[in-house]
């Protein structure tokens, strides 16, 4: 059974796996605003995404079962959010207020709006009030290619 990784801010918690080594990749950064080695979904390929969602049990639960259920639900929602960010991207709005060359206020808001179907929970670990849920999602180009192109156009 895997254990939680040690906290290291430089190690990412999200991994992406591809099941087709012959698929297209996006151009290098700067061309069309795409990042190098980003997979492009075509009508004929399948992209597999994975995410690890984390959820913490609230302190004010009436039983250990309720704590587990709430932490697991939070972890699943976090996993869906991460998958949505990978599928559609994330919208970031930021506002900074500067007075006399000193930052007075900084507000950053993020928003993910995604349709996710058939995501699979592959592993659930609950330890010390923290729930970690591993999720996978396969995007079949025959189904999702038109959905993504309509969303962009």
In short:
By secondary structure, the chain is of the alpha+beta class. The protein has 2 helices and 6 strands.
Describe the structure.
With 153 residues, the protein is an alpha+beta fold. The protein has one domain. 24% of the residues lie in helices and 34% in strands. The chain has two helices and six strands. Strands 1-2-6-5 form a four-stranded antiparallel sheet. A hairpin with a 2-residue loop joins strand 5 (120-127) and strand 6. The radius of gyration is 19 Å and the shape is flat. The termini are far apart. Residues 1-30 have low confidence and may be disordered.
Radius of gyration: 19 Å
**Average pLDDT for all residues:** 78
Q: Counting H and I runs of at least 4 residues, what is the number of helices?
A: 2
Sheet-strand content, in percent, reads: 25-35%
Number of strands: 6
Order of helices and strands: EEHEEEEH
Distance between the termini: 44 Å
**Main beta sheet:** 4 strands, antiparallel
Strand order of the largest sheet: 1-2-6-5
Low-confidence stretches: 1-30
- What count of structural domains? 1
Structural class, from secondary structure content? alpha+beta
How does the overall form come out from the CA principal axes?
Answer: flat
* Helical content (DSSP H or I, runs of 4+): 10-25%
